[in-house]
Amino acid sequence: METALKGSSWRQRALVPVLVYLGMVVAVISSLGAPLVPTIATVDHVSLSDAQWSLTIALLVGAVATPAMGRLGDGPHRRPVVLGATAVVVTGSVLAALPLGFGCLVAGRAMQGVGLGLTSLAIATARDALPAERSRPAVALLSITTVAGVGLGYPLTGLIAESFGVHAAFGFGAVISAIALLAVALVLPSTADRPARPLDALGALLLGVALAGLLLVLSEGGDWGWTSPRLLGVAAGSLVLLVWWTVHELRTAHPLVDLRLVRHRVVLTADVSGLIAGVGMYLLLSLVTRFVQTPTTAGYGFGASVVVSGLVLLPFSVASVVSSKVVPLLIRLTSSRVVLPLGCAVSLLSVAGFAVARGSLWELFVVMGIAGLGVGCTFAVMPGLIVSSVPARETGSAISFNQVLRLIGYSMGSALSAAVLQAHTAPGQVLPSNGGYRTAALFGCAAWVVAAVVTVVLPSRSAGTVEVASGTVRLPAQAGGTERERMAELNGPVRDAGSGG
């Protein structure tokens, strides 16, 4: 390993729990805005579309900050980057908790969005600072904290907001993030021995603006109109910047994201499937929370409170955590090539279940439990595939890019659910028809089918597919010695793909 934990044994034992807690805090805080949008609109006297920025701004800032933090975290500055970003989250949480008006709330939520880049750095830390037998399960668990935290954040947010007011929910975020800052300061190891690499400032700017533009299109499409010149102009400009960024990354000596790694079929599989799985996951979450809160006068729905709608997502969180414990066993019995499409298939089953069975709350609890198992299995496998396929110095950058793609997928899923439901809302009506939910669920089914196909078609053993299973890794015969040694250190014995062994 390039970095070893130093200090007392209690710091070594505490590292994984602290990293998991940090990931959960980031997930809970990032989801704080979602269930509170109607309440924020009422309290701050703004429209629902304006109040939606309390959620959108965090995603926008997270999309910009994540790749830059991932690159900085691959060098000697990981510890100050993690501590600095966590401090920004604490400050933003305090600002959002103060009753200073909607502008300060949005500014605080923007600062909280910086925390979305911390998960990839936590995964990179687990990869570098822990022995192989501990790093593999830790990486898998950290990968699903963003999933599990959403399900925990929704009911906690609703309960606190209903009991003490909307700003108290953000105050809760300040408390838990401050605890995370203290814990990380105590146990996070230094990476000062790593070589420094220059930050690709132009690449960070191009990617940040391009992603911000695309997320702006997805979040504002309903209000601006999907065919409006303004929307199409922002979309076209963002795509041009994305192409420019791609060309720049392939030509620069020190890219923000080494896109050459994406040519590795394992990394490409994790990235493409992560994007599509993000669409399917957030589409279902958006549909379920809105369906549960729909008044019964619409002929469907349960007229539930924010707390109840959040509790419906609790099985999703619990099942996703359970899946992280099941995945290592499944990989040992089969391989990661089997577990990844299996997770997509289980997720497909959950969305199909919502399409046909949503007449009672217990059915939705079952649906969300199945969804948690599927999404948890899918996301738990991805970081291991990436970590085992890229040089150690690129771990943080590669995983942060995967996180950015997931973030884009989340936004696309949320926007897609809203667009479909709006299309099934009759003129002059506020609520969509019940059939709109079925149609949206079918779109979700399509997303998971595509994700499953990607996980089956893209991987190729002859292209150097890595199997993180039973402590063994298969590499192409021409793999370089240094990389082979690193892979053996992470996963155990290394076998040549052409050796027949």
List the helices and strands and how they pair.
Elements: H1 9-30, H2 33-43, H3 48-51, H4 53-73, H5 78-97, H6 102-113, H7 118-129, H8 132-143, H9 145-164, H10 166-187, H11 201-224, H12 229-251, H13 265-293, H14 306-312, H15 314-333, H16 336-356, H17 361-387, H18 395-423, H19 434-457, E1 473-475, H20 481-491, E2 494-496
Parallel strand pairs: 1-2
Helix pairs in contact: 1-7, 1-9, 1-10, 4-6, 4-7, 4-11, 4-18, 5-6, 5-10, 7-8, 7-18, 8-17, 9-10, 9-14, 9-15, 11-12, 11-18, 13-14, 13-16, 13-17, 13-18, 13-19, 15-17, 16-17, 16-19, 18-19
Fold and architecture overview:
The chain has 3 domains: 1-190, MFS general substrate transporter like domains (Growth Hormone, Chain: A); 200-255; 263-470, Growth Hormone, Chain: A, CATH 1.20.1250.20. Helix 20 links the parallel strand 1 and strand 2 (494-496). The chain has helices at residues 9-30, 33-43, 48-51, 53-73, 78-97, 102-113, 118-129, 132-143, 145-164, 166-187, 201-224, 229-251, 265-293, 306-312, 314-333, 336-356, 361-387, 395-423, 434-457, 481-491, and strands at residues 473-475, 494-496. With 501 residues, the chain is mainly α. It contains 20 helices and 2 strands.
